Amino acid sequence: MGSMIEFARPDGGRTKGYLATAGHGRPGVVVIQEWWGLNDQICGVADRFARAGYNALAPDLYKGRVTTAPDEANHLMTGLDFPDATHQDLRGAARHLKNQSGKMVVTRVPLQGHFANKDDWCTPAAVDELEKVLKGAGVKHEIYRYDAAHAFANERSAAYDVECANLAWDRMSAFLKALIA
After folding, report:
1. Given the DSSP bridges, would you call strands 55-59 and 14-20 parallel, antiparallel or unpaired?
2. 17, 51, 72, 165: which could form a disulfide with 59 (CB 3.0–4.6 Å)?
3. Rounded to whole angstroms, how far apart are CA atoms 147 and 117?
């Protein structure tokens, strides 16, 4: 459905990403890869957004590197220049979509989060702390917790939980529609 493209970064450089389109004038969504890299599963998420009526761009934050090995994924994520990825690659993707679509639905606030209760990485305690900070800062947010394991929405993961993944998608879809209404 989509294809790899090259787009401009704010610093004048160029980077690549996977673009799936629903058509000119449709709202845009930036899809951020998991620690495995810009793999087929993440491209499939962008394709799903396009089928739902959004232009979706997933920047290639690892510059072509993809892995299925947890140790290598950890190495790639640890080595990622987060300020550069955020301020250049992600911002460049948002600008590219805004230029194509005119509307962006990716914002920092309000925030919607979907978390697994059986997660030793993004633990329930960490989610509690996030929610406490958001409430304390007066940030409008929705936090959803699922009786599932980390990566419950990744259909290629052993932790995939179709019921929880579909519920998360439905909630996210309603959230995005409300933002652009």
Report:
1. antiparallel
2. 17
3. 5
Specify the pairing of strand 111-118 against strand 141-149.
parallel
Strands in 3-8's sheet, in edge-to-edge order, are 3-8, 14-20, 55-59, 28-30
pLDDT in tens, 27-83: 999 999 998 999 999 999 999 999 999 999 999 999 999 999 989 988 989 998 888
Long-range pairs, 118-123, Cβ under 8 A, ≥24: 118/147, 118/148, 118/149, 118/150, 119/149, 119/150, 120/150, 121/150, 122/150
Q: How far apart are CA 54 and CA 24, in angstroms?
A: 10
Residue 41's SS3 state is: helix
Q: How far apart are CA 106 and CA 128, in angstroms?
A: 23
CA separation for the pair 150, 115 (Å, rounded): 8
| pLDDT tens by residue, 151-181 | 999 999 999 999 999 999 999 999 999 988 7
Under a CB-based contact definition with an 8 Å cutoff, are residues 144 and 112 in contact?
yes
Which residues is 15 bridged to in the sheet?
Answer: 7
